[in-house]
Fold these 2 entries.
Entry 1:
Amino acid sequence: MSYETNDLVTEESSLSERVAAAVVGLNVLSVVMGFAAVFQWTEVESEFFGVSLFNLYGLALVATGLAVIALGVVSRAGLVDTTPDRSAGLLTGGLFGLIGVVTGGLFASQTLGFGVFGWLPIALLFGVGFGVVTVLPREDIGSTLPAGALSIVVGALFLLNVVTTEWEWEPEGFSAAFTGPVVGPVLTIFAGLVCAWAAAKAHEGFGTRGRQAGAYLLVGLNAFGMLGVLLLLILFVAGKGWSRMVEGVKFGLFSEPAFWFQMPGLDQYVVFEIPGVWFYWPFTMNGYSLSKDVMNGVLPSIVGTVWLVIGAVLFAVPLGVGAAVFLTEYAEQGGFTRAVEIATNGLWSTPSIVYGLFGYAFLVPRLGNTTSLLAGQLVLGFMLLPLVLITSREAIKTVPKEYRDASAALGVSQWETIKSVVLPAAMPGVITGVILGVGRIAGETAPILLVATGNLQASRGPQVLTNFHFTSSPPFVANPALLDSISALPYKLYATITAGVVSSDPAFGWATALVLLIVVLSFYAVGIVSRIYFRRKLEQ
Amino acid sequence: MSNAEFKQSEQASEQATDEQSASQSMTVSGESQEQLKDEWTDYQFDGAPKISVEDLDVFYGDDHAIQSVSMDIPKNSVTALIGPSGCGKSTFLRCLNRMNDRINSARVDGSVEIDGEEIYQDGVNLVELRKRVGMVFQAPNPFPKSIRDNIAYGPRKHGDINDGLLDKLLGRAEPEKEDEIVERSLKQAAIWDEVKDRLDDNALGLSGGQQQRLCIGRCLAVDPEVILMDEPASALDPIATAKIEDLIEELSEDYTVVVVTHNMQQAARISDQTAVFLTGGDLVEYGETDQIFENPNSQRVEDYITGKFG
Amino acid sequence: MIGSIDTRVRSARTTVEDMDRGAQFVDGVAVASVLAALAAFLVAPAYTVFPLLAFFGVTAYGWKSHQANTAKLLMFLMTASTIVILGLITVYLVLRSLPIFQAMGLDLLLKTNKPLWSTSEGVYSLVPMMWGTLVTTILAMAIAAPLGVAGALFISEIAPSWAREVIKPGIEILAGVPSIVYGFIGYTIINTYMMEEFKLANFGSLFAAALVIGVMSLPTVVSVAEDAIDSVPESMKSGSLAMGATDWQTIKSVTIPASFSGVSAAVLLGVGRAVGETMAVTVMLPHQQVLPDPIYDVFAGTETLTSLIAGQYGIASGDQMSALFAAGVVLFVTVLGLSIGSQLIEAHMERKLGGSQ
């Protein structure tokens, strides 16, 4: 019953395999070209070797569409060795059916101008037709014919100048128009992916191995696409913000006396001088400036972010780690632990703006009725707490039970065991969790917007350390810096948008975004690297 | 220096300088060298071998897990691989259906032929290979599906049973054929009577011994030619073990069974021939089970079997 | 002889009792002072310092004399504070939103005819914002769920190890990009792009915002789904492969079904992220508290619950402020529900793979 051949060893690549590989390659290339046009790296009007971009898309799609159909036909005719299944399967059928519904519906409603009762049956008819053509024939025809046809039709739209760069379509009911420069590349990407998928199946001779190849191609492209988005994002921000960020950076050498001693006999001091480095980075070392001569910088925001993070960590880490130890080591596994678990997971997914509202209603009135650094630290601490708790619990749980048993068997008390065995072993995990958590709260904007920020025009950051003093009334210790509004990097970036700085000085916004990215991502990088390091160490 | 130690050090230096397989060097060497080598792997039998291994080396990173092993395994018999923990017998077993491909750091050199066809070469269809060479694992690993789905899994994946939604829609489904395969496999695995009334229950609800026989049945449903078993009874109680052992002996009438075990009594009970691996991935002696256990050629094997070593 | 043993036993017993009494004293005073500190902070924040000092004093004494006991007590208090924080958030959100619920009744959540949101008329309906949140979430998850799950599959099952070592940290770093940075890019680049290429009437649309949210919730879905897929035991996969199933068949028929609940929990968490995403939508959407016309026009500019709060907290007071808190309650309840739902699903998965079914 099986269509699998019983050869243990299959032959080296045949002609049809090479054709299939070429089709996959060409399609991936068209997809990349499509994205290039969507992202406006290439002008849609541009020409390559005297052929316009859209005609190039058309040629590629028609050629690969024909090739894919040919691969299917050659396999069906038994001219090459393949192992197709009886049918391409319901999933493939459903996908092509859906494409049929969309195509038919658009055609009937937009080109022919039918109303709902007109286009709906036509759409369904198209859908069922596409689905049946996919499902009923043997797999080699069913998976190539519709894909090839789709590719040829889309290609023809370009070659016959139906879809051009001037083409425009305003669907009823949407306040948007679909224009050629967007629709053309998107259609190309879609048809290219479908075609590449079919060709990948053909490359492995259809059947189970063919389906695996097709699926792996799509899943792999998706993964690398995601990575591409990441790189694009970071490089884009870096490219836009770099020149402003490093503008006016100066550094040089100066010498200072390092050590000296009296030369006996000469009665003179011999002074050794070593060179020092001075460094001036206006963008990160200046505050807000009104004068045109002094560059506007983000120092107060950086200092504000640093203090926010320090406060949140001081609040959340002891609390989180302590709670994690209690839950894992002391508490009976039952209703109470379950409740805490649900509470922490709930806290972890609570939107940051809700924390902001809470701080606004709970902390702000009690801390001087104004936005303040302290309120911001506490709210961010509340946000950090569940993350520290969850990661610490996981780290403590991974400490093997044998360690505890061994320690207990030596007559060591539970608390001593926790202190000297469990906590040290869990420390790497806890540290990594904290670093990643800090990365998250350092970039958080919504909560501090409501409870901490306001002072955008400070020339210097909050002076927390020098502002402590004692008072005669409770609470006896006062620190105005803690109770003042501050600025922070994410808030500064938000303010460039709301205050309209973006339109007058976009580079300032990009540079701020870049500094913020560098700060946050370096926390992440350190966290991830330390986790990898600790894991490697554990595995050795 | 005692005799045994002398032999071991001699053998180590031999291997360092000369990568020739033991069987080859044995045929050309005189009696004195045979004693120095202490390797007795040239087992002769009638008929063509089902599996033929030549100069197989396996490395995990820098770790040399299998050292130049050569052996021929006869058709429709039970071959036991025994040896102390870490001697590489499981690694060797996993080379026979290329399950070592799953481990990134593993590198395999040498040749393994099934029915004269090399399985370590470009273009080998792993699907076809593993259909022919089935495997049963140390711990029972049924899928979290019904008993029926577990058995029918392989045939469905290979298109031997049409069972998909599409087949049902088009009236191509073959419930009778599926029932037949399920019944045959479960009967062969000697578990049919215990589960025939609850084929649609989750397989994870079975006892450990039942789960292991289910896994054997699952393997038989694909109709393999060779069945590899990796300590199939080590996680089971004595009664379940006895059932598995009976089953293995029955299976050898139709299948070539290669079974890894650390239990020497078990090997003696169920196998037709036995291969003894000793530390470092060395195949030291291979021959008729009776001869290995009653009158081994190798001093080290005798030490191992009588419990003086290993 | 007998007498001396008796004394010794008795003296031993008294030390134990003494210790117990001392520890009990520390426990009692510490708990009382923490409760007093909480009460003081609620009523008269300036006086929080007294119970707080008492607490530090007694724990310092306890740490010296009964360290194990005090440590346990401290940790218990830390644990309890987690629940207290969740409780405080709930209480304060609900308390502050009560006035608007009294004023508007259920109209707050159901009113769909105009005016929907008007300070001058004192009418506040959250319907447009709830619709905006729903639309952006659905569109975002249409991007993030399939791509995220596929990405997770690639990382844990398909990728060669070198690719895994690059992509996995890459995705995690993607999760670290602050939402305001996405918002900034969305505002300056995507909104402009949409204006030019899609000829939008508004600067900013639900569609563009959803696109950005989709990219933002992608890493969450990938990481959590990858954990779920990774937790499927290797022996199960080997069992399938050893029968000659291909890797892809194994993924489809063994790995995905076995990790299905974990993967859906990942998607639910992603939904939670998308619902709660604030800054990107705040800067990208034009703040118009109206329903799109027609309702399915995803290119219209409206408002989400989160952007409403972030956009109006500065100018709101009285009923309007209360309405913002009501929006917070809706968000909080939704996300808490999603979180609990995903936990139940994960617990189900553990039971299933544990084999106790």
Entry 2:
Amino acid sequence: MGVSAPLLSAAGVIASVVAIMVDGRRAVAIAVVFLAAGLAPTAAAFGGAPGVAVLAGSAVASVLLAWIGWLSGRVLPWLSGLDPMIPAFAPPDRLFGPRSTRAFGAAVAILVASWVSFNVPVGQITVEQGLLFPIAYAWVCGAVRLVTARTVEDLAVGVAMVGIATATAWLLRNGNDALPGAAFACVVAPLAAFLAGWLNGRSSRRTQTRVEVEA
Amino acid sequence: MNPLVIAAGWLALGLVTSAFLRRPTARLVAIVPLAGAALTLFVARSTTAAVPLGGLSAISGLDRAGQGVLVAAGLSMVLVILLQPSVDPSMGRSIGVVGAAATITIASNSPLITGLVLAAAVATLVLRWVDQAPGKVSLAAGRAAGTGTAAILAASPLLPLTGFTTGERPVVVAALLATGVAALLAVYPLGGWAAGVIRTLRPIEIAPWLILLVPVVLLVAERIPGGVLGAGTPVFEHVLLVVGLGSAVWGGIWAVRGTDQTRYGRVFMADIALCVAAIEGPPVSPALTGALIILVTHLTLAPILLRPRDGVLVWPRRVAWALLSGVPPSPAFWGRLLLLEALAAGNVGSTIAAVIAMAAIFTASVMACAIRIRPLAPPGWRGRVADVAAWLLVAVGIAIGLAPQSLATFVFGH
């Protein structure tokens, strides 16, 4: 049975749009889970079961490490630090906020990813197939998330998106080093999730302490 | 000794010192770069230079130039820490991670491993910077430098280019690698973040980037066009030549216009931009030698010039600025002369831009020398030791100026 390129692209695009738009304390884990799910069909087509396992492992590890990081940040008593959710700067009020900018970036990313998909071959993929589209789109969305970041959480989401996209691109190489390379690239996402969880845990402990003192 | 072991040493010591040192013993953080430099002396030597344009491969050794850069940078970092008026012990973490990343970067043939370790280094620095000075400026470092490392990661599945030396693929790879290098070296238009952090943060905070990371990325950038980049080679070289020259001129102008507090950072950025432009220019030999002389000059003088201006080390600072001015026989003169020679082999436009940048750097150095500050007597034995160390560094700077080629050969084997 042949691979349906539009179906693979649709899954990747939906996952990338969710990942680029998601906000909140669990943003990194949500972005990684959606992106891994959206790129899993592409990974399955070229990396087989091991390819899907790499992405699934990364998603599970991200959720677990985000939770472990959050728990450790709350429990360890001698550390305090920055809140990854507080914007590092406050831009003046304007018509289009940060999410609008990201949505605009996601729209532009379609053009970039389309060009890459039809002109840049990776490994066994020939330029006519256009199967690089979902990966290129996820990567460009990750880069947009990085460039438009207002918080440390945004940076972590962007880095995780780039990691998952790069890992899937490694699966498309189809060489001896494809699977180890994908596994290496995937490491970025759980680490970013852990870091964001850790910072969230520390800042939530600090908030709780302040509330207790005020009470 | 394998570079991975050395990187593990940097990392372990950095984490241990940041966890256990307290304010009174904070200067012991200097153990991290000192041990890193010492371990690097015993590294397994590789006859070929590592270029991150291959597939996933094992890390086996370091070439002579890479070893020289790491040892010189480690020793420079030690002196930066020792000459600072105060040190935060948690700095050990950033120094350890960045030192480890620098070691692996210069030893790795794999763009994936290079991108990952550089991402770790950038993330560590950015978290620290945002923690120290939350704001647009520190976050911009994460945006720009983070995107740079993301670009290197994106290039990794497209490499090696064996069998794909023509067409769009090498051009896309070259554009991604040029973006990564420009962002990490803070070359305009991706360099605004460095100017911001230099203005906002204490000099010791930016030292791991400036001392440990920049020399390594510069050396890697010089090696990339020598690898298999096919049709991407001219793209990589021309992009970095143009943005490097523009950045050097811009950095030089701002070194003159800016405040005294940010002047050294601006001069450093302008010099690095000149080096980037020259080594990506025509393939002639003086460029690399000139860049290495400029690097060793900055690594020697940075410990003095990164100390906040506080009435201590006034005269060593003046002599250090004189050595950076480009007046013969200062080491900066020989370095910039070789860079100019390399650029002049290309076209007259490059030469004119480089001369403007060098004139601006000279003016900035003269302005820095001319600032009057009443010298304070060094407080106690610690101040006197700092004074002696600063004068020794100045002496090394003069020695480099008197025998630049020999010193570059001694340090880098080139």
